[in-house]
Amino acid sequence: MEKGKDIIRFIVSVGVCELAGVLGALYTTPNIGTWYAFLAKPALTPPAWVFGPVWTILYLLMGIALFLIWKKGKGTAERKEAIGIFAIQIVLNVLWSVIFFGSHSPFPGFIAIVSLWLAIIATIAAFAKISRGAGWILVPYLLWVTFAVYLNLSVWLLNL
Asked: Are 40 and 159 in contact (CB under 8 A)?
């Protein structure tokens, strides 16, 4: 019976994270070939096609990390807090797309992505207390968002 629950938890965990990606993409995708295409961007900006696969993998990793936390420490305050922090960061993740792409707002987007970056650090710390593996799984996400902070800041400064 527990194995069946774990399969459902895994599907829900990954599904929630991938859904966040889909919601963000609703604001991002229509603006890639229009508004975003005409912005000045830094030299290290990857081609647009890189972002979809990278984010899909990162959302999968987030889902796996969430599953590991959901599975461990059942009913503990520590687990509830960790999942709450995770929820905040996933909302900030979607919110960044809404602000940066949906509202065409690089500076408010920069504020949002720095907030997201801090929330990811808090999530890693909270997850690592419960499962070191879950914390480590989120490190690629932190690294990518660190790069995204640089890109967002550069786009803002280059387009003042």
From this structure: yes
Q: Which range marks the domain in which residue 15 is found?
A: 2-158
Instruction: Find tokens 């829900």 and name the residue.
Output: 12
- 73: confidence class by pLDDT, cuts 50, 70, 90: low
> Cα(27)–Cα(35) distance, rounded to whole angstroms?
12
Contact of 45 with 61, CB cutoff 8 Å? no
CA 48/CA 29 separation, integer angstroms: 10
Q: How many domains does the chain have?
A: 1
Structure confidence by residue, pLDDT tens digits, 87-113: 999 999 999 999 999 999 999 999 999
pLDDT confidence of residue 90: 98
Q: What would the two tokens of residue 32 be?
A: 């890639």
Residue identified by tokens 């387009």 is 159
Number of residues that this document lists for the chain: 160
CATH number of the domain bearing residue 47: 1.20.1260.100
Angle 113-16-31 (CA atoms, 0-180°, nearest 5)?
45
The rounded distance, in Å, linking the Cα atoms of 65 and 141 is 11
pLDDT at res. 76: 83
